[in-house]
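in:
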């Protein structure tokens, strides 16, 4: 069962590519998933969002984070490491979502306790399919802390 509008899941998308960010946001909207998708473009902004500081002081706590591993300035690896090392944040599921299919990146993501590693789709139709599969698993079957 997908959450109702009142129970919309809060998704933080950490994506430096504006085109990919738009595709994901549009795909979630097209799929009619009860979600609020917030997008930031770099690791510093991601940490500000989850810590609710600076311009993100009023941001909600994300229920799930979609994290590109290759970010400007602070890397996705550094963001993941910090998220999973802090007791107050480690229960937030983090899905590494990147264009890399490097075995090294995959292994490193899981070493840092990512909940999943997904390779970004190449074309828009595949984005929609990925979002549908995301909905089917993460939003239908997975239970989140506090829910």
């Amino acid at each position: 069962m997908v959450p109702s509008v009142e129970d919309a899941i809060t998704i933080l998308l950490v994506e430096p590519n504006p085109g990919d960010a738009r595709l994901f946001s549009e795909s979630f909207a097209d799929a009619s998933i009860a979600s609020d998708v917030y997008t930031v473009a770099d690791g510093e902004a991601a940490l500000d969002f989850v810590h609710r500081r600076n311009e993100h002081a009023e941001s909600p706590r994300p229920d799930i984070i979609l994290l590109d591993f290759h970010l400007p300035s602070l890397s996705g690896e550094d963001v993941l490491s910090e998220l999973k090392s802090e007791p107050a944040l480690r229960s937030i599921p983090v899905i590494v979502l990147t264009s890399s299919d490097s075995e090294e990146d995959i292994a490193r993501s899981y070493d840092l306790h990512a909940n999943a590693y997904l390779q970004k789709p190449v074309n828009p139709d595949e984005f929609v399919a990925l979002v549908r599969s995301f909905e089917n698993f993460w939003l239908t079957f997975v239970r989140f802390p506090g829910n």
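note: The helical segments are 18-30, 43-51, 76-85, 103-111, 124-139.
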